[in-house]
Write a structure and sequence with these properties.
Elements (H helix, E strand, L loop, with lengths): L2 H20 L2 H18 L1 H4 L30 H37 L1 H16 L2 H12 L3 H11 L2 H14 L3 H8 L4 H37 L10 H10 L12 H25 L27
Helix pairs in contact: 1-9, 1-10, 1-12, 2-4, 2-12, 4-5, 4-7, 4-8, 4-10, 4-11, 5-8, 6-7, 7-10, 8-10, 9-10, 10-11, 10-12, 11-12
Length: 311
């Protein structure tokens, strides 16, 4: 069978495993959670019951029928703030995750495919970034560059690609030894054609899984930097909502509604992305699935000389 016929078969198998993984209950739950947050972010302009720039109630007013999540220290409706903060936080998280996956994929593909000195140089760079505490470095870089959403995106994206590079490198080193890749090289296919035609399509589901998981880290890191005051103070994000509430004494007076809703949104979105990412990983690598013993699926064989085995 020619390499051109083998490659589509391999692609259909990989993407078929992806479709199967996305049909599992954890993946469906994760997709629903992500879909709800995406919908709220896209239509937050129409869903916000009040303005986020003008007061609409009392200072730290408790939740009520008019204000479901209460109000902050400035009398601004918390539900409106959470909806707008989700839009900005998800934009920062998704953008930073895409940047991280793009850099990691380039390092991983080049390192795994060419090997030799290219692999050595790129992996030493990767190792250098891996041993540096990311949160600490993010704090230092964000503090030096100044508080800005674009700076936060670049800091997170440029420091979060190392794990993707390692995973992609290992997968590419396996793919380049496949029969259809060797046959394509033997008939004169160039490196660029082999990478684009035979390597990248196989990496698609793996990159999707890593992107989903990277989104969780990017949103968490953005929230952490914003809570520490290293994000744009004029932008409304889940992190800045919690930062302002903490700094203005919401905890001391028991105004939990000024902090808890934003924190729950961060946790729920992270759990949703985690469920989808893990489901994809399990679908692509069945060895990651946990095996559980069931009395209905197996039983001990009778000892020799007893029961039906007796002569």
């Amino acid at each position: 069978m020619a390499a051109a016929q083998l490659a589509p078969a391999r692609r259909s198998g990989v993407w078929g495993a992806l479709r199967t993984a996305m049909a599992t209950p954890p993946a469906i739950i994760g997709l629903i959670v992500i879909g709800v947050f995406l919908g709220a972010a896209l239509f937050s302009r129409f869903l916000k019951p009040y303005s986020t720039s003008t007061p609409s109630c009392g200072v730290f007013e408790a939740p009520s029928a008019q204000h479901w999540l209460g109000c902050d220290d400035g009398g601004v409706d918390m539900l409106s703030l959470v909806l707008q903060g989700g839009q900005v936080s998800m934009f920062v998280g998704f953008t930073a995750a895409v940047i991280a996956i793009f850099i990691g994929a380039i390092f991983g593909v080049l390192s795994g495919y060419f090997g030799g000195w290219v692999d050595t140089v790129l992996m030493r760079i990767t190792d250098y970034f891996m041993v540096i505490p990311q949160i600490v470095l993010m704090i230092v870089v964000a503090a030096v560059w100044g508080p800005s959403l674009s700076h936060v995106i670049m800091v997170i994206g440029f420091l979060m690609w190392t794990s993707t590079a390692r995973v992609v490198r290992a997968q590419v080193k396996s793919l380049r030894e496949r029969v259809y890749v060797r046959r394509a090289a033997s008939i004169g296919a160039g490196h660029t054609r082999i990478i684009l035609t035979h390597i990248l399509p196989q990496l698609g589901p793996l990159l999707i899984a890593n992107t989903v998981l990277a989104i969780t880290l990017a949103i968490f890191n953005e929230t952490a930097l914003a809570f520490l005051g290293l994000s744009d103070p004029t932008a409304v994000t889940w992190g800045t909502i919690m930062e302002h509430a903490f700094e203005r004494g919401a905890v001391s007076i028991g105004a939990w509604w000024a902090i808890v809703p934003a924190g729950l949104c961060v946790a729920a979105l992270i759990v949703g992305c985690y469920l989808v990412g893990n489901s994809i990983e399990d679908g692509l690598n069945p060895r990651l699935r946990a095996s559980y013993l069931s009395t209905k699926s197996w039983r001990l064989r009778p000892l020799v000389g007893r029961g039906r085995d007796a002569l």
